[in-house]
């Protein structure tokens, strides 16, 4: 289907061995991005609504049930209170989050809730032994197939960190290629778990391998590692996306995820993407924010913009 990034033959993997990332330059660039002024007033409200449309609204917890997944879906369909959207004249723009993201066992619940609400919002499922990826390959492949059969149209796979840490890039390419095939028409986001890859050079290499193997997005983290989405790592991944685009002509998306909780951070992420990849990437087809508890703060800031006051917690119900 259109929009899918095709697999690049593995003969191009020699590129990987030549890669070296300049750590100092990356850290300097990250500092520069973070030091930028963020937009204020109505411009800030507009950017925050843009961030909302890029959120993969996520619940990935052991105690997820059909009812909290149902609430998550309703929140994804109506992420900001109608009266607040009306106040900024955005009530008729169909603002929703980009997708909901759940564990494979909860996909059917999410699909049912969205269907009953007459919504065509995408359901993303994590898969392949999320978060550690330490299950047999056949089990990981089967998990992808089951999530797709249950109605997930986006699959967030995790890479096998063992293969990255031992430099088995070809084997990693081969696994991801098989996940791609198992996804069928579903879009595939590949989680690198950057907190466990050791070096920026490994992050860059893993990004390239994931893209060559056919990933539609590369994603920083599961949210379960001790280090998750960071700006320096994002710069390394964005450069890999840019280099891959220059070589192949294919635009691969980027999804920072894990520990993103404040409206302010979402603005920095949008600024980083605009600077590193350009405006084309500032849309849900090429940029997602994976987050379980970001939307509440964004809605609070929009409430403040509209009313001049901060909302009490009961005024903005969150899934
Ligand atoms: O993919 C999304 C992440 O798991 C969400 O992480 P978070 O719970 O830290 O926002």
From TrEMBL:
Task: Please report the organism this UniProt entry assigns to the protein.
Answer: Gasterosteus aculeatus aculeatus
Note the NCBIfam families from the entry.
deoC (TIGR00126)
Q: Which Gene3D superfamilies match?
A: Aldolase class I
Can you say what this protein is called? Deoxyribose-phosphate aldolase
At the top level, the lineage of the source is Eukaryota
Task: Name the enzyme group at the top EC level.
Answer: lyase
Major site of localization recorded for this protein: cytoplasm
A Gene Ontology molecular function term for this protein is: deoxyribose-phosphate aldolase activity
Catalytic residues?
A: 219 (schiff-base intermediate with acetaldehyde), 255 (proton donor/acceptor)
Q: Which PANTHER family match?
A: DEOXYRIBOSE-PHOSPHATE ALDOLASE
Q: Is Lyase one of the keywords UniProt gives this record?
A: yes
Q: What does the function comment of this entry state?
A: Catalyzes a reversible aldol reaction between acetaldehyde and D-glyceraldehyde 3-phosphate to generate 2-deoxy-D-ribose 5-phosphate. Participates in stress granule (SG) assembly. May allow ATP production from extracellular deoxyinosine in conditions of energy deprivation.
Which InterPro entries does this entry report, sorted A to Z? Answer: Aldolase_TIM (IPR013785), DeoC (IPR011343), DeoC/FbaB/LacD_aldolase (IPR002915)
Q: Can you say where in the cell this protein is located? A: Cytoplasmic granule; Nucleus
**Keyword tags:** Cytoplasm, Lyase, Nucleus, Schiff base
Q: What GO cellular component term, any one, is given?
A: cytoplasm
- Share what the entry says about its subunit structure, partners included: Interacts with YBX1.
Documented EC number(s): 4.1.2.4
Q: Lineage, please?
A: Eukaryota, Metazoa, Chordata, Craniata, Vertebrata
Q: Which GO terms describe its biological process?
A: carbohydrate catabolic process; deoxyribonucleotide catabolic process; deoxyribose phosphate catabolic process
| Record has ATP-binding as a keyword | no
Q: Which family does it belong to?
A: Belongs to the DeoC/FbaB aldolase family. DeoC type 2 subfamily.
């Amino acid at each position: 289907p259109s929009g899918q990034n095709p697999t690049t033959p593995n003969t191009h993997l020699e590129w990987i061995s030549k890669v070296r990332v300049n750590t100092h330059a990356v850290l300097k660039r990250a500092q520069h991005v973070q030091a930028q002024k963020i937009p204020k007033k109505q411009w800030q409200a507009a950017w925050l609504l843009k961030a909302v449309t890029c959120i993969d609204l996520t619940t990935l917890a052991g105690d997820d049930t059909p009812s909290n997944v149902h609430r998550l879906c309703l929140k994804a369909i109506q992420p900001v209170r109608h009266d607040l959207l009306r106040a900024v004249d955005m009530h008729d723009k169909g603002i929703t989050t980009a997708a909901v993201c759940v564990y494979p066992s909860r996909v059917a619940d999410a699909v049912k809730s969205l269907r009953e609400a007459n919504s065509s919002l995408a359901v993303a499922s994590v898969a392949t032994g999320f978060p550690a990826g330490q299950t047999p390959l056949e089990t990981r492949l089967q998990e992808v197939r089951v999530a797709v059969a249950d109605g997930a149209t986006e699959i967030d796979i995790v890479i096998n960190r063992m293969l990255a840490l031992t430099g088995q890039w070809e084997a990693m390419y081969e696994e991801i290629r098989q996940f791609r095939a198992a996804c069928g028409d579903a879009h595939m986001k590949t989680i690198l778990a950057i907190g466990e890859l050791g070096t920026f050079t490994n992050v860059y290499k893993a990004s390239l391998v994931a893209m060559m193997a056919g990933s539609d997005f590369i994603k920083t983290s599961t949210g379960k590692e001790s280090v998750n989405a960071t700006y320096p790592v994002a710069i390394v991944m964005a450069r890999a996306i840019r280099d891959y685009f220059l070589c192949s002509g294919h635009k691969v998306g980027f999804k920072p995820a894990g520990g993103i909780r404040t409206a302010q951070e979402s603005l920095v992420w949008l600024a980083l993407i605009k600077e590193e990849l350009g405006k084309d990437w500032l849309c849900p087809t090429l940029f997602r924010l994976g987050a379980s508890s970001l939307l509440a703060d964004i809605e609070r800031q929009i409430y403040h913009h509209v009313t001049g006051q901060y909302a009490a917690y009961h005024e903005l119900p969150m899934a």
